[in-house]
Amino acid sequence: xxxxxxxxxxxxxxxxxxxxxxxxxxxxxxxxxxxxxxxxxxxxxxxxxxxxxxxxxxxxxxxxxxxxxxxxxxxxxxxxxxxxxxxxxxxxxxxxxxxxxxxxxxxxxxxxxxxxxxxxxxxxxxxxxxxxxxxxxxxxxxxxxxxxxxxxxxxxxxxxxxxxxxxxxxxxxxxxxxxxxxxxxxxxxxxxxxxxxxxxxxxxxxxxxxxxxxxxxxxxxxxxxxxxx
Length: 229
Ligand SMILES: Nc1nc2c(ncn2[C@@H]2O[C@H](COP(=O)(O)OP(=O)(O)OP(=O)(O)O)[C@@H](O)[C@H]2O)c(=O)[nH]1
Known about the structure:
The protein is of the alpha/beta class. It has a single domain, classed as Rossmann fold (3-Layer(aba) Sandwich), CATH 3.40.50. It is 36% helix and 21% strand. The chain contains 8 helices and 7 strands. Strands 1, 2, 3, 4, 5, 6 and 7 form a 7-stranded mixed β-sheet that branches. Helix 7 links the parallel strand 5 and strand 6. The chain binds guanosine-5'-triphosphate. Guanosine-5'-triphosphate (GTP) binds next to helix 2. Guanosine-5'-triphosphate binds next to helix 2.
Protein backbone atom coordinates (compact mmCIF):
# COMPACT_ATOMS: atom_id res chain seq x y z
CA UNK A 1 0.00 0.00 0.00
CA UNK A 2 2.85 2.36 0.86
CA UNK A 3 4.54 1.60 -2.42
CA UNK A 4 1.30 2.29 -4.32
CA UNK A 5 0.87 5.56 -2.51
CA UNK A 6 4.39 6.64 -3.34
CA UNK A 7 4.05 5.51 -6.91
CA UNK A 8 0.82 7.46 -7.37
CA UNK A 9 2.47 10.55 -5.95
CA UNK A 10 5.46 10.17 -8.20
CA UNK A 11 3.31 9.76 -11.30
CA UNK A 12 1.01 12.64 -10.40
CA UNK A 13 3.84 15.06 -11.03
CA UNK A 14 4.85 13.72 -14.42
CA UNK A 15 1.30 13.18 -15.72
CA UNK A 16 0.29 16.73 -14.88
CA UNK A 17 3.28 17.99 -16.87
CA UNK A 18 2.44 15.82 -19.88
CA UNK A 19 -1.22 16.87 -19.95
CA UNK A 20 -0.50 20.56 -19.80
CA UNK A 21 2.18 20.27 -22.47
CA UNK A 22 0.01 18.26 -24.87
CA UNK A 23 -3.12 20.39 -24.57
CA UNK A 24 -1.36 23.72 -24.76
CA UNK A 25 -3.39 24.85 -21.74
CA UNK A 26 -1.86 26.74 -18.89
CA UNK A 27 0.01 24.48 -16.53
CA UNK A 28 -2.27 23.18 -13.79
CA UNK A 29 -2.03 24.71 -10.40
CA UNK A 30 0.40 22.74 -8.30
CA UNK A 31 0.31 21.95 -4.70
CA UNK A 32 3.35 20.77 -2.88
CA UNK A 33 3.00 17.62 -0.86
CA UNK A 34 4.99 17.18 2.28
CA UNK A 35 5.43 13.68 3.64
CA UNK A 36 5.78 13.67 7.40
CA UNK A 37 6.32 10.43 9.29
CA UNK A 38 5.06 10.11 12.84
CA UNK A 39 6.99 7.58 14.91
CA UNK A 40 7.20 6.40 18.50
CA UNK A 41 6.22 3.49 20.76
CA UNK A 42 2.88 1.77 20.50
CA UNK A 43 0.05 3.49 22.37
CA UNK A 44 1.67 6.93 22.63
CA UNK A 45 -1.14 8.43 20.53
CA UNK A 46 0.26 8.73 17.01
CA UNK A 47 -3.05 7.75 15.42
CA UNK A 48 -4.98 10.16 17.63
CA UNK A 49 -2.64 13.07 16.93
CA UNK A 50 -2.71 12.61 13.18
CA UNK A 51 -6.48 12.09 13.25
CA UNK A 52 -6.93 15.21 15.37
CA UNK A 53 -5.03 17.28 12.82
CA UNK A 54 -6.59 15.80 9.68
CA UNK A 55 -10.18 15.18 10.87
CA UNK A 56 -10.33 17.91 13.51
CA UNK A 57 -11.39 15.63 16.36
CA UNK A 58 -10.36 12.79 18.62
CA UNK A 59 -11.22 9.40 17.08
CA UNK A 60 -14.10 7.46 18.65
CA UNK A 61 -11.89 4.42 18.99
CA UNK A 62 -8.49 3.29 17.82
CA UNK A 63 -6.77 -0.01 17.23
CA UNK A 64 -3.09 -0.73 16.97
CA UNK A 65 -1.84 0.47 13.60
CA UNK A 66 -0.71 -2.31 11.29
CA UNK A 67 1.99 -1.18 8.92
CA UNK A 68 1.06 2.42 8.24
CA UNK A 69 -2.02 4.63 7.88
CA UNK A 70 -2.07 7.74 5.74
CA UNK A 71 -3.90 10.92 6.56
CA UNK A 72 -3.78 14.03 4.45
CA UNK A 73 -4.94 17.58 4.84
CA UNK A 74 -4.70 20.54 2.51
CA UNK A 75 -3.81 23.86 4.08
CA UNK A 76 -3.04 27.28 2.73
CA UNK A 77 0.04 29.12 3.85
CA UNK A 78 0.84 32.58 2.54
CA UNK A 79 -1.51 32.00 -0.38
CA UNK A 80 0.00 28.66 -1.36
CA UNK A 81 -2.00 25.44 -1.14
CA UNK A 82 0.01 22.69 0.47
CA UNK A 83 -0.85 19.09 1.20
CA UNK A 84 0.38 17.72 4.46
CA UNK A 85 0.57 13.95 4.28
CA UNK A 86 0.95 12.29 7.65
CA UNK A 87 2.24 8.73 7.77
CA UNK A 88 0.98 7.22 11.00
CA UNK A 89 3.35 4.32 11.53
CA UNK A 90 2.85 1.24 13.68
CA UNK A 91 4.59 1.37 17.05
CA UNK A 92 4.55 -2.38 17.55
CA UNK A 93 7.59 -4.07 16.11
CA UNK A 94 5.59 -7.02 14.75
CA UNK A 95 3.41 -4.61 12.71
CA UNK A 96 6.34 -2.60 11.35
CA UNK A 97 8.72 -5.16 9.91
CA UNK A 98 7.43 -5.50 6.37
CA UNK A 99 6.75 -1.79 5.90
CA UNK A 100 9.57 0.00 7.55
CA UNK A 101 11.65 0.69 4.46
CA UNK A 102 8.68 2.46 2.85
CA UNK A 103 8.26 4.89 5.71
CA UNK A 104 11.60 6.47 5.16
CA UNK A 105 11.46 7.09 1.44
CA UNK A 106 11.13 10.72 0.36
CA UNK A 107 10.49 11.94 3.88
CA UNK A 108 10.33 15.69 4.42
CA UNK A 109 9.99 15.75 8.21
CA UNK A 110 9.82 13.48 11.25
CA UNK A 111 7.61 13.75 14.33
CA UNK A 112 8.84 11.73 17.32
CA UNK A 113 6.07 11.05 19.82
CA UNK A 114 6.24 9.84 23.42
CA UNK A 115 3.51 9.45 26.01
CA UNK A 116 4.00 11.89 28.88
CA UNK A 117 2.44 9.35 31.25
CA UNK A 118 4.79 6.56 30.19
CA UNK A 119 8.48 6.96 30.97
CA UNK A 120 9.36 3.87 28.93
CA UNK A 121 8.04 5.55 25.79
CA UNK A 122 10.36 8.50 26.50
CA UNK A 123 13.32 6.19 27.05
CA UNK A 124 12.63 4.56 23.68
CA UNK A 125 13.24 7.80 21.81
CA UNK A 126 16.97 7.15 21.18
CA UNK A 127 16.00 3.90 19.46
CA UNK A 128 13.61 5.75 17.16
CA UNK A 129 16.28 8.32 16.40
CA UNK A 130 18.70 5.49 15.67
CA UNK A 131 16.19 3.88 13.30
CA UNK A 132 16.02 7.16 11.36
CA UNK A 133 19.81 7.20 11.14
CA UNK A 134 19.89 3.63 9.90
CA UNK A 135 17.52 4.57 7.11
CA UNK A 136 19.84 7.37 6.10
CA UNK A 137 17.50 10.27 6.68
CA UNK A 138 19.26 13.48 5.80
CA UNK A 139 20.43 15.29 8.89
CA UNK A 140 18.84 18.58 7.81
CA UNK A 141 15.30 17.16 7.70
CA UNK A 142 13.10 19.00 10.22
CA UNK A 143 12.36 16.89 13.30
CA UNK A 144 10.16 17.70 16.24
CA UNK A 145 9.50 16.02 19.56
CA UNK A 146 5.93 15.70 20.82
CA UNK A 147 4.93 14.67 24.33
CA UNK A 148 1.30 13.54 24.14
CA UNK A 149 -1.46 13.05 26.77
CA UNK A 150 -0.76 16.18 28.80
CA UNK A 151 -4.47 16.09 29.74
CA UNK A 152 -3.70 13.25 32.17
CA UNK A 153 -2.26 15.70 34.73
CA UNK A 154 -1.38 13.68 37.82
CA UNK A 155 -0.36 10.59 35.80
CA UNK A 156 2.43 12.45 34.03
CA UNK A 157 5.81 10.76 34.52
CA UNK A 158 8.04 12.67 32.11
CA UNK A 159 8.93 16.10 33.50
CA UNK A 160 9.09 18.94 31.02
CA UNK A 161 12.64 19.88 31.93
CA UNK A 162 13.86 16.34 31.25
CA UNK A 163 12.11 16.28 27.87
CA UNK A 164 13.43 19.76 27.06
CA UNK A 165 16.97 18.67 27.82
CA UNK A 166 16.58 15.69 25.50
CA UNK A 167 15.08 17.90 22.79
CA UNK A 168 17.94 20.40 23.13
CA UNK A 169 20.53 17.63 22.92
CA UNK A 170 19.00 16.45 19.67
CA UNK A 171 18.30 19.96 18.32
CA UNK A 172 14.56 19.47 18.13
CA UNK A 173 11.77 21.75 19.32
CA UNK A 174 9.59 20.17 22.03
CA UNK A 175 5.80 20.35 22.11
CA UNK A 176 3.67 18.96 24.92
CA UNK A 177 0.08 18.46 23.93
CA UNK A 178 -3.03 16.32 24.06
CA UNK A 179 -4.79 14.77 21.12
CA UNK A 180 -7.77 14.19 23.37
CA UNK A 181 -8.45 17.38 25.25
CA UNK A 182 -10.44 19.64 22.96
CA UNK A 183 -8.93 22.68 24.66
CA UNK A 184 -5.62 21.68 23.20
CA UNK A 185 -6.96 21.30 19.70
CA UNK A 186 -5.19 24.47 18.69
CA UNK A 187 -1.97 23.15 20.00
CA UNK A 188 -2.04 20.01 17.83
CA UNK A 189 -2.94 22.32 14.99
CA UNK A 190 -0.04 24.58 15.83
CA UNK A 191 2.44 21.72 15.90
CA UNK A 192 1.74 20.51 12.39
CA UNK A 193 1.25 24.01 11.01
CA UNK A 194 4.58 25.05 12.46
CA UNK A 195 6.17 22.13 10.68
CA UNK A 196 4.38 23.04 7.45
CA UNK A 197 5.69 26.60 7.70
CA UNK A 198 9.17 25.30 8.21
CA UNK A 199 8.90 22.94 5.24
CA UNK A 200 7.37 25.55 3.00
CA UNK A 201 10.17 27.98 3.57
CA UNK A 202 12.96 25.46 3.18
CA UNK A 203 12.01 22.77 0.70
CA UNK A 204 11.97 22.98 -3.09
CA UNK A 205 9.03 21.66 -5.11
CA UNK A 206 9.24 17.87 -4.83
CA UNK A 207 5.84 16.47 -5.74
CA UNK A 208 2.78 18.10 -7.16
CA UNK A 209 -0.75 17.34 -8.19
CA UNK A 210 -3.23 19.18 -10.40
CA UNK A 211 -6.31 20.51 -8.62
CA UNK A 212 -9.04 17.88 -8.29
CA UNK A 213 -11.43 18.07 -11.28
CA UNK A 214 -10.12 21.49 -12.08
CA UNK A 215 -11.67 22.84 -8.89
CA UNK A 216 -9.44 24.78 -6.58
CA UNK A 217 -10.15 23.50 -3.11
CA UNK A 218 -10.80 25.89 -0.30
CA UNK A 219 -8.13 25.92 2.35
CA UNK A 220 -9.14 23.87 5.37
CA UNK A 221 -7.05 25.76 7.80
CA UNK A 222 -5.11 28.91 8.31
CA UNK A 223 -1.78 28.85 10.04
CA UNK A 224 -2.12 29.61 13.69
CA UNK A 225 1.55 29.84 14.46
CA UNK A 226 4.32 31.58 12.68
CA UNK A 227 7.28 30.82 14.87
CA UNK A 228 9.30 27.61 14.75
CA UNK A 229 10.05 26.86 18.36
N1 LIG B 1 -5.96 10.72 27.70
C1 LIG B 1 -5.47 10.66 26.47
N2 LIG B 1 -5.49 9.49 25.80
C2 LIG B 1 -4.98 9.46 24.55
C3 LIG B 1 -4.44 10.61 23.94
N3 LIG B 1 -4.01 10.26 22.70
C4 LIG B 1 -4.27 8.95 22.57
N4 LIG B 1 -4.86 8.46 23.68
C5 LIG B 1 -5.26 7.09 23.93
O1 LIG B 1 -4.09 6.28 23.88
C6 LIG B 1 -4.37 5.02 23.26
C7 LIG B 1 -3.44 4.78 22.09
O2 LIG B 1 -3.68 5.75 21.09
P1 LIG B 1 -3.23 5.52 19.56
O3 LIG B 1 -3.38 6.82 18.87
O4 LIG B 1 -3.94 4.36 18.99
O5 LIG B 1 -1.69 5.13 19.78
P2 LIG B 1 -0.60 4.80 18.64
O6 LIG B 1 0.66 5.46 19.05
O7 LIG B 1 -1.13 5.15 17.30
O8 LIG B 1 -0.45 3.21 18.79
P3 LIG B 1 0.06 2.13 17.69
O9 LIG B 1 -0.85 2.19 16.53
O10 LIG B 1 0.01 0.81 18.39
O11 LIG B 1 1.48 2.50 17.34
C8 LIG B 1 -5.85 5.05 22.87
O12 LIG B 1 -6.59 4.41 23.90
C9 LIG B 1 -6.19 6.53 22.85
O13 LIG B 1 -7.54 6.78 23.17
C10 LIG B 1 -4.44 11.84 24.65
O14 LIG B 1 -3.99 12.91 24.22
N5 LIG B 1 -4.96 11.80 25.92
